[in-house]
Design goal:
single chain; alpha/beta; Udp-n-acetylmuramoylalanyl-d-glutamate--2,6- Diaminopimelate Ligase, Chain: A, domain 1; UDP N-Acetylglucosamine Acyltransferase, domain 1; 3 domains; ten-stranded parallel β-sheet; flat
């Protein structure tokens, strides 16, 4: 069990402590379930109702939120959600995917090892691979020829990384991800599909996290590029030659078609579909279930799709959408009549 004093947690978060500096914390918990020995946080006012009965040893508060209703110790910070994330990392007890190099792993003799590398059972590491210091590869992975994995990068079980892929330092790749598979490139000759070899690769920067069962295709001629500090959720499809800028976050189920460029610090909601060969500028937010068919050149929040309605209301909406051309023609006709009547008068 991990045990830390509130004084130590104040040092980790950079917060100002009001209360018992020697009090011991052993875990993190949500505010409505926290008990003695737990630390929790409050950043959203709708949860303030739980303060009166909260039994946590300490609560992390935003400076902008009053904490008078809580009788325990308080850590006051600029951003309680960020501070809580740092505390949660300290108490994280997630096991490593593997320890040491399993005797059941298949490792080519021409693999370059950094210090303290771990490889799980039944993983295959092919010729020319370079593994940085403290790289961890879980069981059942395939690491293709000439792949480079940077320092302190963790690859969970059953991940496939195709040949020539380059992945930076401190990356986290969740189970089932596929990186460097062929992009969807074909020509059609009289009804017959002719495959276009995908001769680019995938280049992933530092501190990138890739969710479970996400697929990132290799480039056709150039590379698919994921820049530093990008976070990708589960079950994304990122097609060939896509480029994703620094600090962008993309939620689950999103599909990005080929050769699209997404800028820095963008946020893309789950289930979105983004057309190919377009460019999205820096700082764009796209809400969930959106369909992006054209480039976005101005920073802002963008949405599409119809919010949930009762089925009978949705049917009316859908019927009106199908009649929009007819309605437009009638409107223009009325505008002409109105102009003519004004001219006559």
């Amino acid at each position: 069990m991990i045990k830390l004093t509130l004084a130590e947690l104040a040092s980790i978060t950079g917060g100002k402590l009001y209360g018992n500096a020697n009090a011991i914390v052993t875990s993190v918990a949500p505010i409505d379930k926290a008990t003695k020995g737990c630390i929790t946080f409050l950043s959203n006012l709708k949860y303030k109702k739980y303060l009166v009965n909260c039994n946590a040893t300490a609560i992390i508060f935003d400076k902008k939120i009053g904490y008078e209703q809580f009788q325990g110790s308080v850590l006051l910070v600029d951003d309680s959600y960020v501070a809580f994330a740092k505390v949660a990392q300290v108490f994280d007890i997630t096991p490593k995917p593997s320890e040491n190099i399993s005797t059941f792993a298949v490792v080519h003799e021409n693999v370059l090892f950094g210090k303290s590398v771990s490889i799980g059972a039944h993983s295959i590491i092919e010729s020319g691979v370079k593994l940085g210091d403290n790289t961890i590869i879980g069981p059942g992975c395939f690491i293709g020829r000439n792949v480079i994995l940077g320092k302190n990068t963790t690859v969970w079980a059953n991940v496939t990384i195709y040949h020539e892929v380059i992945i930076g330092n401190q990356c986290l790749i969740q189970s089932g991800a596929v990186i460097g598979s062929d992009g969807f490139g074909y020509a059609n000759e009289k009804g017959e599909w002719i495959k276009i070899p995908q001769v680019g690769t995938v280049r992933i920067g530092n501190r990138v996290e890739i969710g479970a069962c996400t697929t990132i295709d290799r480039g056709a001629l150039e590379d698919t590029i994921i820049e530093d500090n990008v976070i990708l959720d589960n079950q994304l499809q990122i097609a060939h030659n896509v480029q994703i800028g620094y600090g962008t976050a993309i939620a689950g189920g999103t599909i990005i078609a080929g050769s699209t460029r997404i800028g820095k610090y963008c946020t893309i909601g789950g289930g979105s579909v983004i057309n190919g060969h377009i460019e999205i500028t820096n700082g764009v937010t796209i809400t969930g279930m959106s369909m992006v068919v054209r480039g976005i050149s101005k920073k802002g929040v963008y949405s599409s799709g119809i919010p949930l309605q009762l089925n009978k209301d949705w049917r009316k909406t859908a019927t009106r959408v199908h009649r929009i051309d007819e309605m437009n023609k009638r409107l223009k006709a009325l505008e002409r009549l109105f102009k003519e009547s004004k001219t006559e008068s």
